[in-house]
Design brief:
By secondary structure, this protein is of the alpha/beta class. It has helices at residues 11-28, 40-44, 60-66, 68-85, 96-108, 128-135, 146-152, 163-167, 174-180, 198-218, 231-243, 258-264, 274-281, 294-303, 311-316, 331-342, 345-362, 366-374, and strands at residues 4-9, 33-38, 48-52, 89-93, 113-116, 138-141, 157-159, 188-193, 222-228, 251-255, 267-271, 286-290, 322-325. It holds the Pfam family LpxB.
Amino acid sequence: MAPRIAMVAGEASGDLLASHLIRAVKQHVPDAVFYGIGGPKMQAEGFEARWQSERLAVHGYVDALKRYRELSGIRKKLLAEIRRDRPDAFIGVDAPDFNLWLEGRVKDSGIPSIHFVSPSIWAWRGGRIKMIARSVSRMLCLFPFEAPIYDKAGVPATYVGHPLADVFPLKPDRAAARERLNVSPDAKVIAVLPGSRQSEVRNLADTFIGAAAILSQRHPDAVFLVPLATRETRTLFEEALRLNNARELPIRMLFGHSVDAMTAADVVLVASGTASLEAALLKRPMVISYRMGGWQYRLMKRMAYLPWVGLPNILCNESLVAELLQDDATPVRLADALDRWLLDPAGCEALAERFTELHLTLRQDTADKAAAAILPYLQHKPQVGHV
């Protein structure tokens, strides 16, 4: 009988990660059947989507509360199907708020539950590790320091590397990126990434535009590339330009193309998140920033365990790049921090060497390693537990 694997992936990033995993597993088990909640990339690999992954997308706490009943209903229906079907394993890809509850019930039913992409317990909400230990048969970790944390807590864990490190070249081609974007080879280029979410752009656009205005005065030949993920975020940034009387700034907004923009850049101003890791893998000097509601920031600051929020600093365990957050994120401070990189070619070169070391550490052929960790669970049908 063909192995059956139930899966849940939320958002586009989870859909991509899961699609690579499905392909890697099928290289070893061609007749494996995957079903559950997923997106178009998973379906292109033969995944049977009972619900689309976009159904799980929520935008902030208010949206999550409004849609709680809908999402809870989907989760309970999928759990009932899994208990009836008795797949060989369940794999939850990211989306911890949705998946960990489901994984606990699946595991209690005698079905191995695997979670792909560790929640950030090392940054905040570390108390969740007790719930994770009850819910997860194995954790697949993207970062090397995560597996020992789980091992210490008695949770089987495997370090599989980060998929972006497999995709990004060790030596990015800046000239080619500038040619694709029609940017002069001699231009001074600053990439400005205010985030992929509408809330991030609302909170950062004015400050980032102010920093660009200061740098434009200091460097009249500078070009600012602003990749924006959606029409909504582009509209928000355009409105911020209008309100700040900044339409004359040499700013080029792009639909997507964030990797090209960062590759082409001399320095990057980036909202904290995965984009900062992308900038590190592209060997670019950067300044990391973030702003949020005051009470949210105070809450997260009290719950934080590390002195950094930016992934490059966390992964290198060192303050390699400036982090200007909340009230410290002023246009002048951001401009000054970016200027320090523009005026320090030797420092930029040394930083690129550190980021190359990080890249090699994270480059592990993630999909194959994750598949290898999952295959043992497909060799024996789990025994029926309580339902």
